[in-house]
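Running co-folding for calcium ion.
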Amino acid sequence: MNKSKKKIKLNRSSVLILTVCVLLFLVMGLITYIKVSELMLEQSKQSGMNLAQTIAAEIDGDEMNRVYAKTDPGYQTILNILNKYRYYTYVKYIYTMRLEDKANLTFVVDGDPDDPADCGEAYTLLDDMLPAFSGEACCDMQVSTDAWGSYYSAYAPVLCKDGSVAGIVGVDIGVDYINSYLKKLMFSLAAICISFAVITVGLYMLFSIELTGKDVLTGLYTYETLVKKGNSLKKHGELVGRTAVLVNIKGFKYINRQYGYDFGNELLKALAKFLREGLIQGEMIARTGNDNFCILVMNERSAAYIARLKQTNPTSIDAAMPDGLPAPVRCGVYTIKEDDTMEQVMGICTVVMNVARNRKKEDIVYYSRETYENILEEGDLLTSYKQAIRNGEFKVFYQPKVDITTNTLCGAEALVRWQKEDRFISPGQFIPLLENEGLITELDFYVFETVCNDIRLWKNQGLTPVPISSNFSKLHLGNPDFAEEIVKTADKWQTEHKYLAVEMTESSGYSDMEALTAFVEQMNKTGIRVNMDDFGTGYSSLSLLGDVEMDTIKIDKSFVDRIFGEKESGANLVSSVIRLIHDMDREVICEGVETIEQVNFLKNTECKLVQGYFFDKPLEHSEFTERLQHPVYER
Ligand code: C2E
Ligand code: CA
Ligand code: CA
C-alpha cells in the first residue's frame, strides 16, 4: 500500500527490547553518574592535599614556631606565602594552625582577607586533622557546606628542620563546581532517558493497534489474530458450523496504479466497513494481507452474506465511491469441517479463491473436492514440468490437414501431449497453466525441434513430408529474437523452410499487435509461413487481416460449428467470412470439422483445406508416418 515508504515493522518483542534498552540506559546512566562524581571528588581531594603539601613545604616550621602574634616577624612571611596560593581556582580558604597542647587548636596565620581569624584564636580540633599533626597529608572525608558554598578540607604538616611538626596548613577546596558539573551531567542523562522513553511510548502507542492484533489501516483483525481466534473456537468445537469466505478485490493492482495508493487505501477501508457491516455477533472478519479479507460467517447465514456481496458489485470503480460495495470482488468459499484447523481453512480458501482468479467468468467459487484436487494436480504439473521436459515426457502428435478437393493429405498441425506415467494429459489442461507461469516458451521450442527432427527422419525414410505447423504462444512476441531463433532451430536440423509453419493466435493488445506485425514480416522473408489460429474467437477482427500479412487463416471450430448451428444465418456468416478472406488473397483452413455435411458445405464455399476428426484425430508419430505413406483418404 505504501508507495516508496518502508513501513517500520514493530512487534511485541521489538517494543520489549526497546523498553529493556531504556531501563538499561537508565541504570547505566545512574552508575555513570555515581562513578563520575566519586572520581571527581577523589581527584579533587588529591589535588587539595597536593596543594596543602606544596604550601606547607614553603613555610619554615622553625619560623612558624616563633609566630604568636600578628606583629611577630614570621607572620607576614607566612601570610605572603598563603596569599600566593589564595587565588588558585577552587581554593576557598588557606590557613595555618598549631596545637598548643593535645586538645587546643589555634590559628597561626589565617589567609582569609574578609574575616581573618586572629593569631591564637581557638578552633575545634577535628579528628580528620590528626594525621597531619603526625606528619602526614590528609583530607576530611565529607564535604562541608556553609554560607559560602560547599567544600572539603585538606591538611598537610609544616615541618621544622629537625623533622618535628610545627603545625599544619589547611586548604579548603570548594566543590560547588563539581556539583554544578554533576548537575549538568544528571540533566543530560535524564534528558536522554526521557527522550528514549518518550520515543518508546510513542512507537508503542502508534503500533499498539498492531500489537493488539489489529490491522492498522482497517482496524480489522490481522491474519495471525484470525488464526488464533479461529483455533480457539476450534478448541471449543465452535469453528465447525461456520463458512469461511476469502474475499479479494479484482484488479487491485490496476486500481492502485490507475487511481493512486491513497484511493487504494480508502477503498480497502470502505470495503472493510462494508464487509464488517454484514456480520452479526460471533462472526469474524480479518484483513489477511494486501487486498484479501477473510470472513467467518455462520453456515446458515453464508448464502445471504455472499448474495449481499454480489448485489452491490458496482459496474465501475468511480461509481462505487463512496456508497455501496466499493470494489468488484471475487471470493473463495469453504464450509468448515469438523477437524479443520484455521490454518488449513485459510489454505483451502486461498486455493479456491485462486480458482476464481483464474476462471475469469466465475467470481464466487465454492470449494468442491474435485476443484480442489484439480488445483493441487495443477500445482503438481507445474513442479514436475521441467523434469518432464528432460525425461522426454512430452510427445508430439500430428493432426492431418486435408485438401478436400482431392481428399489428399496436404499438411499437419503438431499438437503436444504430456505422457505422465500411463496417461496422456491433454494440452488444454497444462498449456494455460504454463502460459500463466510464463513457462510455455521452452515447450513450444521443444515441440518445434521435434517437428524439425521428424521431418528429417521422414525424408531419410524416403517419404515426402508435408508442411507442418507448430503452435507458438503469444508470449514469444516479447522476445525480439523470436524469429531468428525459429530460423536457427530449423537450420540446426537442416529442415527446409517450406515444410514449416508457425501457428499463432491473434493479439488483443495494441502493443502485441505491433510485435506480431513485425514478427510476421520477418518470417515472411524466411519462407516459414505464419498461420493465424483460432480466427472467429475472442478478439478477432476482419480489419486485423488487413494489417498483418499472414497468408493462412485458420477458422476456429466454434465458427465452423455455426454452419449447422441454432441460428439459420450461421451458414451465411461462415461462407461470407470465407469469401472475404479469399478476396483478401489469403488461404482459409477450417478446423474442428467433424461431419460429411460440414465438408460438403465447405466444398461449396470453396474452402479447400480442412482439419478435423472427420478425417483424422491427432496421430502419434508412427500413425502419421503411415498416413504419409497413404496420403489419399478413401471416402
Ligand atoms: P488448437 O491449436 O486450436 O488445436 C486444435 C485443437 O482442436 C486440438 O486440441 C485438436 O485435437 C482439436 N481438434 C482437432 N480437430 C477436432 C475435431 O474435429 N473436433 C474436436 N472436438 N476437436 C478437434 P488439443 O490437441 O487438445 O490442443 C488444444 C490446444 O492446445 C491447441 O488448440 C493449442 O492452442 C494448444 N496446444 C497444443 N499443442 C501446443 C504447443 O505445442 N504449443 C502451444 N503453445 N500450444 C499448444
Ligand atoms: Ca493451433
Ligand atoms: Ca485452433
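Result summary
Residues 12-58 form the longest helix (47 residues).
The CA atoms of residues 25 and 31 lie 10 Å apart.
Job closed.
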